[in-house]
Amino acid sequence: MRVAFLGPPGAGKGTQARELAQEWEGLHLATGDMLREAVAAGSALGREAKGYMDKGALVPDDVIIRMMAERLGKADAGRGFILDGFPRTIAQAEALAKLLKDLGQSLDTVVYFDVSEPELLRRLTGRRVCRTCGHTYHVTSNPPRRDGVCDACGGELYQREDDREDTVKNRLEVYRRQTEPLLDYYRQRNLLATVSGEGPLATIRDAIRKVVGGMR
Ligand code: ADP
Ligand code: ADP
Ligand code: ZN
User: Which among 50, 71, 122, 160 is annotated as catalytic?
Assistant: First the structure.
């Protein structure tokens, strides 16, 4: 199974990818998580990415493409993966196709999560993330059992700096301008499957299983 999850920030890609990657025994490769780890570790990659991430801008294509070439080239990626948050530009999509071709692989499906703008705003500003395991919650629609504490590991929950309202608006604009053209790109290549990203988590998960399974 080689799938990419496409959709605006807050569409629920990470929430679904975490569960489904386990179910499908593949990797969950989230570029945002990889970049945040690099920032926390203070690596050269992290230092280069941080300024862009703080503003809600995209990290330059060459940086992301290098990072993903390295990751997809590792042996464990051979068992399949869900790409979450990558590709985000046409240049990244083209680089991904070439990368996979060189590895003798290709994408099975690109799943687009359709969610309305007001719902995205509500989700992003209410999102809380576990500092320890990265599990994601929402203050009202998907709260942890204990306030501020991760159900999965007991870690501390925090609000991402870029989930504050002004940065969120910028990220949504960046999405419209730079990432939305990928819908046509993948539609033209017969790879795009759309699911509604609104409603109960289990219903959305079923819809994803259906579109991905149907193309296998
Ligand atoms: P979300 O899915 O909630 O929008 P992510 O965690 O995927 O957020 O991304 C956080 C930030 O990391 C982005 O705003 C951007 O700065 C950077 N980033 C993540 N993935 C990419 C990518 N594929 N290309 C460029 N920048 C990226
Ligand atoms: P993305 O990875 O696409 O940026 P996330 O998976 O982090 O999105 O989800 C964004 C926020 O929305 C989180 O707070 C999450 O708990 C919440 N969320 C995810 N799916 C749903 C859903 N179906 N209904 C309501 N809230 C959701
Ligand atoms: Zn946790």
Answer: 160
What would the 3-class secondary structure string for 97-143 be? HHHHHHCCCCCCEEEEEECCHHHHHHHHHCEEEECCCCCEEECCCEC
Could you list the mean pLDDT of each consecutive 10-residue stretch along the chain, which spans 216 residues?
Answer: 97 96 96 95 96 96 97 96 98 98 96 97 96 93 96 96 93 97 98 97 97 72
What's the whole-model pTM score? 0.96
Tracing tokens 């590792």 back to the chain, one arrives at: 74
Q: Is 129 close to ligand 1, i.e. is its CB under 6 Å away? A: no
